[in-house]
Amino acid sequence: QACFYAMDPLAYAKAHGEVDASLKRIVAGYQEWGNILAAQNTATSRKFQDLDASLLADLRLLQGDCNDLSVVLDAIASKRSQHPEVDDKELQSRRDFVATVKQNAEEMLNRISSPEVRSTIETHRRQAASDPSSRAREAVNDNEAFLRNQQMRQQHLVRQQNDQLDQLSGVAQRLGYTAEVINVELESQKQLVK
User: Fold this and answer.
1) In the chain, which residue ranges form alpha helices assigned H by DSSP?
2) What is the DSSP letter of 133?
């Protein structure tokens, strides 16, 4: 399966439902995030803080995955003879799938990042901070500490993912070079046989 994934990552991801499952999980979290935003003071809701941080990171990663898959689809389209298993209809279906996922992710990210929503969250934070009860102030402080921790974790995960992608890119380049060398050798052997 790893070989098939290297040849056609979208088929692997789509076949195993990874992208679709990820999108469904994100949509469920996004709906819960919206319900809490509409009904509660977000500064005192640990669940909201968890969802807010994880949705931002997950949506950005999903957008990155979609961009990567678009590049793969463009490569498949530009070298049609090397991918006979992907006809025009299948290629268009894959492009539509990626475009739909990308559009959904962008819409959710735009709402989560919108100035209106960020203003509401900040208003909730100020209200909770000015609440005379120490419990509310403590919740705000805990939430801010949690957010800082989540941001550091997300930055670490993004760096880790970038490192892995760089390594994978290097392997792919070396594999491409090796394939070219083998092709040249086969051509020279073919000439010797003739």
Assistant:
1) 2-7, 9-15, 18-39, 46-78, 88-113, 115-130, 134-193
2) S
Tokens 């102030």 locate to 137
Cβ atoms of residues 5 and 12 within 8 Å: yes
For residues 30 and 23, the answer to whether their CB atoms sit within 8 Å is: no
CA distances (Å), origin 35, targets 23, 38, 102, 122: 18, 5, 23, 17
Contacts of 51 (CB under 8 A, 6+ apart): 29, 30, 32, 33, 36
d(CA 18, CA 50): 22
Whole-angstrom Cα distance, residue 94 to residue 72? 11
pLDDT tens digits, 131-172:
766 566 677 777 788 888 888 889 888 888 888 887 888 788
Distances from the Cα of 19 to the Cαs of 61, 79, 98, 105, in angstroms?
Answer: 11, 24, 9, 12
What percent of the chain is modeled with pLDDT above 90? Answer: 24
